Amino acid sequence: MPDRHILATSGGTRLTGRANQWQFASLLRYALTLSGKDRPRLCFLATGTGDSDASLASFYGAAAGEGVEPCHLQLFPMPNVDDIASYVCSMDVIWVGGGSVANLLALWRVHGVDEAMRAAWEAGVVLAGSSAGSICWHIGGTTDSFGLELRPLTNGLGFLPYANGVHYDVEEQRRPLVQRLVAEGTLPLTFATDDGVGLHYVGTDLLEAVAELPGKSAWRIEASHAGGMTETRLPTRLLDGEG
Length: 243
Description:
By secondary structure, the protein is α/β, with parallel strands linked by helices.
């Protein structure tokens, strides 16, 4: 069986200063290296933003000159390919963008993207993404999919037997809610990322945390025997060329 890689991040792209335009950052480039290909076939999913034209256009603009073969899978107003499973499994790297993780999961299940992603992962396709595209691979996490107040989400794909906290250092509601949900048992063992940090899993084991921004970290939050929780800062490797 090939290695199964997941890179779950709170980063990977950066804004260029032009409206709705972004470019690749180090975490996304790191996901590309995990494929071992000189010119990886990179598939982008913008399900979390309703397959917005702006998201797709920005992706293709950012991919130019990055040494990839860019393509995308969209579900609105209908799938853009006939055989989603074969299409996804033909990729080298999948990158899932942010937005509503609850809507993303619902649409994926309607169209069989959930099963296609598992097959791709087991075949060695690198699964990666940011925010909603990070939470989705886990059991759950916290989300603003239902409104401005964050809520727990517990119906993730579950490829990884943990919960996931994103934007841990920049959105005030994130850290205390994750801590409370873990302490009360709503979420299991949780790995969280500051903005600019990714979690690299091989199989279902966390290999390491990597960062595209200096001074940023990943965190392990687990229930304690006393009915509370403990939070541990994880060693986080700054990717080459950053700092």
